[in-house]
Design a protein that fits this description.
The chain has 263 residues and is mainly α. Helices cover 78% and strands 0% of the residues. Helix 4 packs antiparallel against helix 5, helix 4 runs antiparallel to helix 8 and helix 7 runs antiparallel to helix 12.
Length: 263
């Protein structure tokens, strides 16, 4: 069995590399450079959301009935496959295929990693450390993203393919790290098997209260609008004349500030 101290270091390392994705800084500009227009990019983002919604529950059920360690290993490999596909992509359909693998990577991780970490700590009678370790892991993940977008903005001025190659390597490193983790008995469920039960119950509750319905609709619309606008930040800054390296600096400062707030 891997010692808790060693596992914790490996966990923190995996969180840093999980979103060490250099292409984040200029992802939409990369799509445009490969011939996609803004409407096609919008459809890709919409399809990504739909695929996530569809796959979230089945992958959560799989995580409760199969090997979480193997799922986490596969997650990194799926992410890596996405970026490898994009390196050679020049069409909407191939980019969509990349998004499919990216969705598999995120849904294979969602809920699974938290449950694995909690069960590992429980095995060592240290489950009380979960919030501390998970919070520090999230801070390191955000810090990794900040470093990545900083480098991505600079390297994209040389070639968009270079940040993609490094991104593919980064998430593959996560798979290698996870491979070093032990198989442990599944104790804590992800809870995603009952996802639709909770959604149905929430819809009934909101539907019976008009004031609550107005608040929910307003929140959803505003959140969706700002989230969609944020996806095109690199396009906006490029339109305003910002060079790629400066975009990376701006995004990096924002992520570092978020990381400090999370730690």
């Amino acid at each position: 069995m891997v010692k808790l101290s060693i596992f914790t270091r490996l966990f923190y390392l995996s969180r840093f590399f999980f979103d060490f994705i250099l292409i984040y800084a200029v992802e939409k500009l990369f799509f445009v450079s490969r011939g996609l227009n803004l409407s096609q990019i919008g459809v890709l983002l919409f399809m990504w959301s739909v695929m996530t919604l569809i796959l979230e529950v089945p992958t959560g059920i799989l995580a409760d009935r199969w090997s979480r360690r193997k799922m986490l290993i596969l997650a990194g490999m799926f992410f890596s496959t996405c970026y490898i596909i994009w390196i050679f992509s020049h069409s909407f359909e191939i980019f969509l295929l990349g998004f499919f693998f990216r969705t598999l990577g995120s849904t294979f991780t969602s809920g699974t990693l938290q449950a694995y970490l909690y069960d590992f700590l429980k095995l060592h009678n240290q489950e009380g450390q979960f919030e501390k370790i998970w919070g520090k892991g999230n801070a390191l993940r955000t810090l990794g993203t900040g470093v990545a977008v900083f480098l991505g903005g600079i390297l994209s001025q040389v070639s968009y393919s270079l940040p993609l190659v490094i991104s593919a390597i980064s998430v593959f490193i996560v798979s290698v790290i996870t491979f070093l983790w032990p198989e442990i008995k599944i104790v804590t469920p992800t809870g995603e098997e009952n996802y639709w039960v909770f959604v149905k119950s929430a819809i009934k509750t909101v539907g019976k209260n008009r004031n609550l319905l107005r608040i929910v609709l307003y929140s959803v619309i505003i959140f969706a609008a700002f989230s969609d606008l944020e996806e095109f930040n690199d396009i906006y800054l490029n339109f305003l004349g910002f060079p790629n390296y400066l975009m990376g600096i701006i995004f990096a400062l924002a992520m570092v500030a978020q990381s400090l707030a999370s730690s």
